[in-house]
Amino acid sequence: MADDSGLCVDALGGAPGVLSARWAPDRNLAEFLLSKLRGIPEEQRTAYFKTFAVLLAPHEVREEAFFCKGIVRGKILNEPRGEAHPRLPYDRVFVPDGYNRAFSEMSEDEKNAISHRGQAFAQLKNFLLRMPDL
Fold first, then answer.
1. Of 85, 132, 76, 126, nearest in space to 105 by CA
2. Is the dihedral of CA 112, 116, 120, 126 positive or negative?
3. How far apart are CA 122 and CA 116, in angstroms?
4. What integer is the mean pLDDT of 93-104?
5. Which distant-in-sequence residues (6+ apart) come within 8 Å of 118 by Cβ?
6. pTM here?
7. Averaged pLDDT of the chain
8. Under the phi-then-psi rule, with left for phi > 0, alpha for psi from -120 to 50, and beta for the rest, what region is 34?
9. Among 3, 4, 26, 91, which one carries the catalytic annotation?
10. By the 8 A CB rule, do 71 and 4 touch?
11. Is 4 a catalytic residue?
């Protein structure tokens, strides 16, 4: 099983996308993102997180891969808010649609219930629960 996620910012043509973790030269990812969006009006700061999760199931005859996708849309703030996990720096600047709090201001359970990773892994879990022995 493996997964990969990325933040796609519409005003930046979908960047950083799959390069989200390696995008900024000094590794201060959220600040680098905000610098790229300076002067962009709030209504144009739309973005989304996307996760793909894959399960490779080896069989005697062939291997099968099962893919699940999660997307959460939202917007990028002008300033960071809250405290983010060190490996999730964009959580301080991303507010999902329908909420007024950044991911970093939500409890772990609340974020997981709506996040892109939560969606992808919920799909994978449902898939596994419906499968006979692999």
1. 85
2. positive
3. 10
4. 97
5. 70, 111, 112
6. 0.86
7. 90
8. alpha
9. 4
10. no
11. yes
Q: b/e for 108-119, b at 16 or more Cβ within 10 A?
A: eeebeebbbbbb
Whether the predicted pLDDT of 61 surpasses 60 = no
Contact 92, 80 (CB under 8 A): yes
Domain total of the chain = 1
The domain of 83 spans: 2-130
- What's the CA angle centered on 80, arms 78 and 91, to 5 degrees? 115
Question: Is residue 62's pLDDT more than 70?
Answer: no
User: What are the φ and ψ backbone dihedral angles of 115, each rounded to 5 degrees?
Assistant: -75, 165
Q: Is the pLDDT of residue 21 over 70?
A: yes
Q: DSSP characters for the chain?
A: -EEEEEEEEGGGTT-EETTGGG-STTS-HHHHHHHHTTT--GGG-EEEEEEEEEEEEE-SS-EEEEEEEEEEEEEE-SS--S---TT-GGGGTEEETT-SS-GGGS-HHHHHHHSHHHHHHHHHHHHHHH----
Residue 69, domain CATH: 3.90.950.10
